[in-house]
Design goal:
elongated, four-stranded mixed sheet, alpha+beta, 28% helix, Ribosomal Protein S8, Chain: A, domain 1, 6 helices, 193 residues
Length: 193
């Protein structure tokens, strides 16, 4: 184990009152180079009652555990936990990408539909959809209502029956793939091919 330098550990606790007085007496007659803010006296710490002694043979009280982390979201039916986790982490290989930057709303909707249908027909499993974060007229990211038009509409389009039956799951993309302006889509395998 690596030993920490004395300067790191020396500053962990405030000096006791008698130590501060000794230091002040030792420094009498010296001149300070740079004025420092006045030291605040430590607040009185309320006395904590001592824990009752545990006798040999008595059962020990169980320590109180910290609140557990919230459970991971359940994957949709037909998708195992490991694959859902890999999708969220961006660890599945991206087979195709559609970038909707520069598309008008109607053209983006048509392009998205055609892309998902063609990707599933081609046997692609994970595709990347870049919709962008949107931009307000003033140039601020997020659009006037907090989100861009495409970003606001893409989830609605993906929920339409024609596309929803082809998509097994979706997840926000990792920063290297577009972050909050992109989605991973995990497509269902076509049956009966």
């Amino acid at each position: 184990m690596k030993r920490r330098p004395a300067t790191e550990t020396a500053c962990k606790r405030p000096p006791a009152e008698d130590e501060a007085g000794l230091f002040d007496r030792a420094m009498q007659g010296t001149r300070q180079l740079h004025p420092a803010p006045a030291r605040a006296k430590p607040a009185a710490v309320p006395a904590v009652p001592a824990a009752p002694a545990v006798r040999a043979g008595q059962p020990r009280a169980k320590p109180v555990a910290a609140a557990p982390a919230p459970p991971a979201p359940k994957p949709p039916p037909g998708l195992d936990h490991r694959t859902a986790q890999r999708l969220r982490r961006g660890q599945l290989p991206v087979d195709a990408k559609l970038d909707l930057h520069g598309y008008h709303q109607a053209a983006a909707h048509r392009a998205l539909k055609a892309f998902v249908i063609a990707s599933q027909a081609a046997g692609r499993r994970c595709v990347l959809l870049v919709h962008g974060r949107g931009e307000a007229r003033g140039g601020e990211p997020g659009g006037g209502e907090g989100r861009g038009v495409l970003r606001r509409n893409v989830p609605r389009w993906l929920a339409e029956p024609e596309l929803a039956q082809r998509i097994l799951a979706s997840a926000p993309a990792r920063p290297e793939h577009g972050g909050s302006g992109a989605l991973y889509l995990l497509l269902r395998r076509e049956r009966g091919s």
